[in-house]
Specification:
Structural class: mainly alpha
Number of strands: 0
Helix content: over 70%
Radius of gyration: 23 Å
Largest sheet: none
Shape: elongated
Length: 197
């Protein structure tokens, strides 16, 4: 994964933190929604992106630790019957063996990372919105209920999809590792056949 791709990924994660922080602050200060989100001067965007990047790093590390147990369970279930080497070594072997497989591993990991971070982002946006709605009360109750329900649903879906993507990640590693072994065995047989000719 390139530095630019990682930077954008962390921005996507950190932007969610900026959103729920903005809504929470708007609620505590009793500001209208448009003042909190849309009334941002152009000159403030560069430092805001920097803050979002830092938030992205912090939240990514936090969620990596929080989801460590689920990650380990999935890893053990999919790669546990491979006696040796262990998952990080298998992953490194695959990444070094093929550039397309290396890209796929990074792509799967990136999707999983974004989903697990936005599981919390959607949830905290919902909590912040509840606080804002309670203090500002700028929209009808049915509209607020719809928005909160949508955010809670998105949080639940992000959690579920994050697990599926984690499984995809380790299945991809397993299949790619088996492919690398078979390819190496095939190349070895082909070279030995060539030597006998």
């Amino acid at each position: 994964m390139s530095t630019t791709q990682l930077f954008v990924e962390l921005l996507v994660i950190g932007f969610g933190v900026v959103v729920w922080c903005a809504i929470l602050i708007a609620g505590l200060l009793e500001l209208p929604f448009d003042k909190a989100i849309f009334d941002i001067k152009l000159s403030l965007w560069p430092p805001l992106l920097g803050v979002a990047y830092v938030f992205g790093i912090l939240l990514d590390r936090l969620m990596y630790s929080a989801f460590g147990r689920r990650k380990n369970e999935i890893e053990e279930r999919i790669l546990g019957d491979i006696a040796s080497p262990k998952a990080p070594v298998i992953e490194r072997i695959v990444m070094e063996a093929s550039e397309p497989l290396n890209y796929m591993i990074h792509y799967n990991r990136s999707r999983s990372r974004i989903c697990r971070a936005w599981f919390l982002n959607f949830f905290l946006i919902g909590i912040s919105f509840i606080i804002w709605h309670y203090r500002v009360n700028q929209m009808p109750a049915w509209c607020a209920f719809f928005i909160i329900s949508a955010l809670v649903s998105l949080s639940a879906v992000s959690y579920w999809v994050g697990g599926l993507l984690e499984e995809d990640h380790y299945n991809n590693i397993r299949w790619s590792y088996n492919y690398c072994i078979e390819r190496k065995r095939h190349d070895g047989i082909s070279s030995s056949e060539t030597e006998t000719l």
